[in-house]
Amino acid sequence: MQQKMADSWKNILQSELEKPYYKELSNFVVSEYKNQTCYPKEQHIFAAFDYCDFNDLKVVIIGQDPYHGENQANGLCFSVQDNVKHPPSLVNIFKELATDLGNEYPQSGHLENWAKQGVLLLNATLTVRAHEAGSHQKKGWETFTDQVISQISKEKENVVFLLWGKFAESKAKLINGSKHKIYTAPHPSPLGAWRGWFGSKHFSKTNVYLKSINKTEINW
Asked: What is the pLDDT of residues 7-31, one digit of tens each?
């Protein structure tokens, strides 16, 4: 499995990449990509880290699983490739963004612009078999991404964590709330969006917080 990861991330994750569980995970992923159709493309597995340098990190958004439909997943949680129909959760994210900040609804569902500004779009599981939701869960990815969250909490200060839905909220235990900002809301999926996702104003709240600590706001 390609470890395409910026040096700034490798510096804090190198010991994790050398642990036995991670080597087993890597072997599993290599085998799956060789014998099955999997997403995202292999070169995009670590896209969240490629686009968002550790030193520039300001915001973390936590997803669960990559999209498992053809040409959807691109390695950034909630994000899809250009010219791909927006999945329901992403539609609701963009609707809330439009209401919160007055933005126009975006044509592209690719969230690389967010990532390049310091938003880590991290799925708990970084790979999936085509059309089989959750098929790569409990293989080691969650251990790795939990460690990513823990290391961010430990090594950084004043990071905004946006935890959407029960799964993401369960990661709050990994975050030092006394030195980071945590915002929670229901998941933006159609099942949960009407229970408080709409009107959560996480985008404006994030920018108000960043401005208060003299950091450049995100151009969502």
From this structure: 899 889 999 999 999 999 999 999 9
Residues 6+ positions from 98 with CB-CB distance below 8 Å: 104, 105
Sheet with 181-185: list strands edge to edge.
119-123, 59-63, 160-164, 181-185
| Percentage of residues of the chain with pLDDT beyond 70 | 98
How far is it, in rounded angstroms, from Cα 210 to Cα 212?
Answer: 5
Rg of the chain, C-alpha, whole Å: 17
The half-sphere exposure of 51 on its side-chain side, counting CA atoms within 13 A, is 27
Distance CA 6, CA 15 (A): 15
Q: Which helix (H) or strand (E) holds 38?
A: strand 38-39
Per-residue pLDDT tens over the stretch 196-220: 999 999 999 999 999 999 999 999 9
Q: Which residues are catalytic?
A: 65
Retrieve residue 102's tokens: 């007055």
**Other beta carbons within 10 Å of 99:** 14
Q: Whose CA is closest to 100, among 206, 187, 204?
A: 204
Read off φ and ψ for residue 132, nearest 5 degrees. Answer: -130, 85
pTM of the shown model: 0.96
Can you say how many angstroms the Cα of residue 23 is from the centroid of all Cα atoms in its chain? 22
Residue 106 has what DSSP assignment?
Answer: P
For residue 40, whether the previous peptide bond is cis, meaning omega lies within 30 degrees of 0, is yes
Distance CA 94, CA 201 (A): 12
